[in-house]
Amino acid sequence: MKAVILAGGEGTRLRPLSVNYPKPMVSLFEKPVLEHTLKHLKNNEITDIVLTLHTLPHVITDYFGDGGAFGASLSYVTEHTPLGTAGAVNACVKSLGANPFLVISGDGVCDFDLREALRFHTSNTADVTILLSRQKSPQSYGLVMTDESGKVTRFIEKPSRTQVFTDTVNTGIYILNPDIFSSVPPDMPFDFAKDLFPELLQSNRRIFGYVPEGYWCDIGDTEAYLRCAFDALDGKIQLSLNALPVGKGIWSDSAIPGDIAIIPPCYIGADVSFGSGVTIGPYTVISSGTSVGSGSIIARSCIESSDIGERAEIDGAIVCRGASIGAGARLREGCVIGDGAIVGANALIMSDARIWPNKEIDEGARISGSVSAGYNRRGALFRESGCITGQPHVDLTPDFIQRLGSAAAMNVPKGEIALCMRGDNAARLAVAAFETGLTATGRNVTRHDAAFEAAAAYAAGAYRFALTVFVSQNAGEVKLNFFSSDGLPINRLLEQKIEASALRGEVTLRDARSVGGTRTISGVTSQYELAAGEIPPWFDDRKLLHIAARGDSPAERSLYHALLVSRALPRADIYLPEFMVDSDGYTVRAVDEMGRNVPHERLLAILCLFEASRGNTRLAVPYAAPALLDHIGESSRLTVLRPGRDDGARMLLSIQPYMRDGIFMVCRIVHALITCGQTLAALNDALPPFGMTSVELPLENDRGSVMRELAGEYGGELVEGVRAKVGGGYVHIAPIPGRRALRVTAEGASEEYAAELCSIVEKRVKYADGK
């Protein structure tokens, strides 16, 4: 079998490790990652190899030549313009012959049995075989769902938090039949996972997923780089090392003095010198030529041919080639020191800081971001749809919020960006920092007076701002909500773009002549109240309705004012019906004339029933809205659309604010009560028997494997979690963002039955979690 190695990666998420090299040439145990890949292919009797190149191609060709020194025959194809993964392979497919061939990434490490994978491919007469790996945190990868035979049923690229239905991820290693490339367009970007594989799946080509035994790691960022090194030290993968074992868990090509402490596992290259009283390990890689000064402590770190001064403390860091760490300097977990950088004596480099190549840090300096660019934070920033939450000065420092603003400015389409807030000093500081990041990159900013989330979302659509960010402060946390120009939360693709730019700290600042400006507008909340209470054409304006609406939060005041506009007579004393709204303006509830609580979901169903009665043919509802709404639609020729499930749902939801905004919803229901002359209690009684119950279930194991089990058992819709019919009701199972837990919502003919369904699913979740 022949092979193609995709070696054109730039490695932006690995910076500053990859600033001076193509991503596959980043050193791992004193050899390029690509060399480990070639060794693995040779071990699997694959020696006829084509490499596709793009970034700094000469670095690779100069090092590997024709491959003879590495036991392989290498040829190269250079992309002058990036063609995507499938496009890159298509450029060389004619040279690979008529037999199945392997495609593998040059920046990953694995020890899969590729010969066994070829046998699987052949025995299943597959057109495509995708090698899969089970991952505890699969949301960072492209997911692949298969049936019991291994045949692929679905691809989920860039999964949202609620789309983790499996723990099997695409490793980027494929066995392919050459004829599948007939539909790949020449000379334009085309990807396997995003373009070609979904197209082949729709054409009923035979695409299989194969989960081999063994180890795989995509070295996509610095955290993964360290994890791969530590896994090799633990023996989870056998890499070819220059140093020989000199004790249990210790490999060394240098003499180890008797007065230093080595805590395994550790790797020490050739010509490493140690001062007295040094402590090395555990999980430490020290490359050849490094000098470690007396009294220094190095643990859980990778040091590449550098000079470490006396009494330095390095924990969980990466120090690149030719760097110098001054005496008494301290490097904290996750920081990276670039090639040739100099860290002064007694300097403190805080967690996750990035020091770019050849930069110099003064003596005694305290660096919490970077000296130029490159501030990095771990994990996804957006834990909920369009929302970032964190503690001020801990998770969300002013420095990082400023970078977040610049990242947003770089990735949002042209146009003004709006900022508004609710809260005290922490919220004001966050708005100021975000505004600084925006204007520093040349974006113009509009500040306005929307004081809660729903009003900010309305303004986003009414003014067509390119982006609206609403900052709120509550219980020691700051929350940033991001809205698109349609008034809905930004999509996951834009979230990931902002995350990527903010986490890498790569922003383009303007000079003073190009700095953006700020303007302020007022009256946005009043305009929102007028729009929410606006009289619809079908309204019977000869009638009035007394209702109760109380409270003093911004959202509660807006509800009161909007009801005045809607021709209701709101009262601040005890009166029925009474409507209440949460502080965000989205969630409402009521007490009807019979004194019964009417939760948000029932109010939504009442409105849906009314819209159907007056002949509305299409409604969009939030995806998590009750399944009862679909039944109301089916019984009344009303089409109910849900974003993520139905085409056009997002656009329709953006122009039907009364289906997503609590204050618009209440005003619409009031208009319905006045026009049809019925009470809220009567409309409540007109609903089919209906009850909902929700529980949160903590997990011991990772969410992906549990969701895979549940998706396989219940089937149903796989959009934001798993939604399926169970018995005489419905259940919706979704991961809880940022936590190892699931939320199970059940609905049935009564709350008792819904609780029973929750209990059934809870037992199934515990069983799947305990496997």
List keywords for this structure.
52 strands; single chain; seven-stranded mixed β-sheet; 771 residues
Query: Distance N terminus to C terminus?
Result: 37 Å
> What value does the Rg take, in angstroms?
30 Å
Low-confidence parts, pLDDT < 50 over ≥5 residues? 373-379
What share of the residues lie within helices? 25-40%
Strand content: 25-35%
- Order the strands across the largest sheet as they lie in space: 14-15-17-20-23-26-29-32
The tally of helices reads 19
The main sheet comes to: 8 strands, mixed
Mean pLDDT: 88
Shape: globular
What's the number of extended β-strand segments? 52
Structural class: alpha/beta
Regarding quaternary structure, what we see is: single chain
Description of the structure:
By secondary structure, the chain is of the alpha/beta class. The protein has an 8-stranded mixed β-sheet with strand order 14-15-17-20-23-26-29-32, covered by helices on one side. Strands 5-4-1-6-11-8-12 form a 7-stranded mixed β-sheet, sandwiched between helices. Strands 16-19-22-25-28-31-34 form a 7-stranded parallel β-sheet, with no helix packed on it. β46, α14 (628-634) and β47 form a beta-alpha-beta unit. The protein is globular and about 95 Å long. The two termini are 37 Å apart. Residues 373-379 have low confidence and may be disordered.
What is the structure about, briefly put?
With 771 residues, the protein is α/β, with parallel strands linked by helices. Helices cover 28% and strands 26% of the residues.
Task: Lay out the secondary structure.
Layout: E1 3-6, E2 27-28, E3 31-32, H1 33-43, E4 48-53, H2 57-64, E5 73-78, H3 84-90, E6 101-105, E7 108-110, H4 114-123, E8 128-134, E9 143-146, E10 152-156, E11 168-176, H5 192-202, E12 207-210, E13 216-218, H6 222-233, E14 244-247, E15 250-252, E16 261-262, E17 266-268, E18 273-274, E19 279-280, E20 284-286, E21 291-292, E22 297-299, E23 301-303, E24 307-308, E25 313-315, E26 318-319, E27 324-325, E28 330-331, E29 336-337, E30 342-343, E31 348-349, E32 354-355, E33 360-361, E34 366-367, E35 387-390, H7 398-411, E36 417-422, H8 425-440, E37 445-447, H9 453-462, E38 467-474, E39 477-483, H10 492-504, E40 518-520, H11 524-532, E41 545-548, H12 554-565, E42 568-571, E43 578-581, E44 588-591, E45 597-598, H13 600-613, E46 618-620, H14 628-634, E47 639-641, H15 649-654, H16 662-676, H17 680-685, E48 691-698, H18 703-714, E49 717-719, E50 721-726, E51 729-735, E52 741-748, H19 751-770
Parallel strand pairs: 1-4, 1-6, 4-5, 8-12, 15-17, 16-19, 17-20, 18-21, 19-22, 20-23, 21-24, 22-25, 23-26, 24-27, 25-28, 26-29, 27-30, 28-31, 29-32, 30-33, 31-34, 36-37, 36-38, 37-40, 41-42, 46-47
Antiparallel strand pairs: 2-3, 6-11, 7-13, 8-11, 9-10, 14-15, 35-39, 38-39, 43-44, 44-45, 48-52, 49-50, 50-51, 51-52
